[in-house]
Amino acid sequence: MIEILTPAEVAKGRETGALVGHILHTLKGRAVVGTNLLDIDRWAKEMILGAGAVSCYVDYAPSFGRGPFGHYICTAVNDAVLHGLPHDYTLADGDLLTLDLAVLLDGIAADAAISFVVGQTQPAESLALIDATERALAAGIAAANPGARIGDISHAIGTVLEAAGYPVNTEFGGHGIGSTMHQDPHVVNSGRPGRGFTLRPGLLLALEPWVMADTDVLVTDPDGWTLRSATGARTAHTEHTVAITEDGAEILTLPR
């Protein structure tokens, strides 16, 4: 299903997006050396429920996971990149942490992810991975204009990632979002321009470039959820929910 929202629904999406951005910003500040991933999950739960919002993850049970997910945020460390199941792990200096969060507020969902390095040690490889995903996301957002095609976004994202020297996995990528978290259209992170659904005002998209340093092959942890690079290489993942407007893409998931 491809959902085109009304202006009133897009306005609700702005509130949901601001909440997601605020929670991620807050959690980034708290995620220091010595922090346990289960504490991050608990803090996310407290902020989501305190805002009167609903987690999109707790009861989520798609075909690719061993559901239900049972937690409020995805926490992926180092070689983990997607769907990181929070567990009893204490963050160490130099860890590359990705936080991925989706919530539903007043009937509209928003989804975002950030990657950052914990502590004083800032490995160049990790910073380069993060930078590539952030630049790719910016390129994808710049391409998300009314009348453009989904393939234009995919091409813009993939061009940046590939120029940075990273293999691109197209199994998991961005997606439509609205009254539910995951909707059509699927937005792969590499593709040919001029193809796919034509963007219209009222369409919400979660765009999410992610890469692994030296492979495009994923492996799944025994927990049935956490996806890692097959080589053990480090990874990064950056995501925003955007609304297509008459003037281009509006980022909804920035903290206020």
Describe what you observe in this structure.
With 256 residues, the chain is α+β, with helices and mostly antiparallel strands. The chain has one domain (7-251): Alpha-Beta Complex (Creatine Amidinohydrolase). Helix content is 28%, strand content 25%. It contains 4 helices and 14 strands. The chain has helices at 7-30, 37-50, 124-143, 150-163, and strands spanning 54-55, 74-77, 80-82, 96-105, 108-117, 174-176, 183-187, 204-207, 210-212, 218-220, 227-229, 235-237, 240-245, 248-251. It has a 5-stranded antiparallel β-sheet with strand order 7-6-8-13-14, sandwiched between helices. Strands 1, 2, 4 and 5 form a 4-stranded antiparallel β-sheet that branches. The protein has a 3-stranded antiparallel β-sheet with strand order 3-11-10, with no helix packed on it. The longest helix is centred in the N-terminal third of the chain and has 24 residues, at 7-30. The chain is globular, with a radius of gyration of 17 Å. The two termini are 30 Å apart. The model has no long low-confidence stretch (mean pLDDT 97).
